[in-house]
Amino acid sequence: MKVYRDEDADLDLLKGKRIAILGFGSQGKAQALNLRDSGLEVTIGLRPQSPSRKKAEQLGFEVQSLSESCSGAELISFLIPDQVQKEVYQEEVRKNLKEGKCLIFAHAFSVHFKLVEPPDHVDVILVAPHGPGEVMRKKFQAGLGVSGFVGVYENRTGKALQKALAYAKGIGLTRTGVVETTFEHEALGDLFGEQAVLCGGLAELLKAGFETLVGQGLPPENAYLECVHQLDLIVDLIKRFGIAGMYSRISELAEFGSYVNGPRIIGERTRMAMRAILEEIRRGEFTEQFMKSYRKGFEAFKEKRQKESAHPINQVFRNIGESFASE
Ligand SMILES: NC(=O)c1ccc[n+]([C@@H]2O[C@H](COP(=O)([O-])OP(=O)(O)OC[C@H]3O[C@@H](n4cnc5c(N)ncnc54)[C@H](OP(=O)(O)O)[C@@H]3O)[C@@H](O)[C@H]2O)c1
Fold first, then answer.
1. Which of 87, 149, 198, 296 lies at a 20 to 30 A Cα distance from 234?
2. Is the pLDDT of residue 321 over 80?
3. Terminal-to-terminal C-alpha distance of the chain
4. Domain range 3-181, CATH architecture
């Protein structure tokens, strides 16, 4: 797999071409600032009465309506929540898509699952950073970048990949490196990764460990420090040295016990569940469930969020974890 870096990307391809950034949230703000610092021309597209208008203007950006920003730009970057992209595309973007314009997505979700169905007279590309906007911006200011994916769905102009690489350079990703992927692989991999492993799977694993220790009489603070608080240290070792490298850097007692009991926690049943989750994502069932919940105002989702935040593990975080987090 080729890793593209700064020397493989030509920012000049985007110089003098106006880029509309739709949204000024986590990704929108960070990408707009990084692109501008890279010498590119940016305008921000927001809905009427947007609370973000003032923030963007204070940072010196021109703010337009969603439709106006798309009409005057050659590149249009979708940095609004995935669930609203369909309606914004249909109402504000589609009518402004002249031959040869370029649509940019930070996640392949809307295009792969056909919530957004772009015409074939525009380029459609993916530039997906591997990190939240705030981290991306901080790293950019320090001369660094987060990694990311680039991809091409529609190559009308014959320059779609070069545009994706140039945009990735503009937001700092090629400082670390980007790899090319397909919209399908990014959409499936990203949803699966966050649901089954990185966010959903991990949070349940941490809670299960915490609940087990507390249930058997250990103080909650003790359970928190053992099962949650040290996570970043282990993740850091895995990122820098791989899983085998992590094992070689912990005690033999910890390594021995991990081999004996790790597979008892994540065994064949978990793998079966993972395959089922991936199948549901692939068939579009998860997308349907998500969009249906959105259309109902995310009612059940909001209830679930409240219930989650009431879990004792969050109380312990506030009591002890928060103050230790700055170590
Ligand atoms: N966040 C991440 O860490 C991350 C990482 C990689 C990729 N991505 C992808 O990047 C994209 C943007 O995600 P994000 O987390 O940056 O989004 P976000 O912070 O939730 O986006 C908020 C912005 O979207 C605007 N917005 C919300 N609803 C809207 C609507 N109905 N019409 C028009 N504008 C609306 C908001 O407008 P107001 O200002 O008016 O409220 C705000 O400016 C998504 O595709 C996501 O999957 C995100």
1. 149
2. no
3. 37
4. 3-Layer(aba) Sandwich (3.40)
Residue 326: what pLDDT?
A: 67
What is the model's pTM?
A: 0.95
> Which amino acid does the sequence have at 205?
L
CA of 23 to the centre of ligand 1 (A): 6
Q: What is the CA radius of gyration of the chain?
A: 22
The per-residue DSSP string of 27-86 comes to HHHHHHHHHHHTT-EEEEEE-TT-TTHHHHHHTT-EEEEHHHHHHT-SEEEE-S-GGGHH
> Which residue from 252, 74, 103 is spatially nearest to 183, judged by alpha carbons?
103
The domain spans of the chain are 3-181, 191-324
Q: Are 68 and 93 contacting, i.e. CB atoms less than 8 angstroms apart?
A: no
223: closest CA among 315, 327, 310, 326?
315
Q: Do domains 3-181 and 191-324 have the same CATH topology?
A: no
Report the catalytic residues: 107
Q: Which atom of ligand 1 is nearest to the CA of 47?
A: 33
Q: Print burial letters for 79-112: b (CB count within 10 Å at least 16), e (below 16).
A: bbebbbbbebbeebbeebbeeebbbbbbbbbbbb
Pocket test for ligand 1, best of 22, 26, 65 (most atoms within 8 A of CB): 26
Give the class (CATH, top level) of 191-324. Answer: mainly alpha
Listing DSSP states for 70-118 in one string gives: HHT-SEEEE-S-GGGHHHHIIIIIGGG--TT-EEEESSSHHHHTTSS--
Out of 27, 88, 130, give the residue to mutate to test ligand 1, the one with the largest number of ligand atoms within 8 Å of its CB: 27
C-beta separation of 3 from 180 below 8 A: no
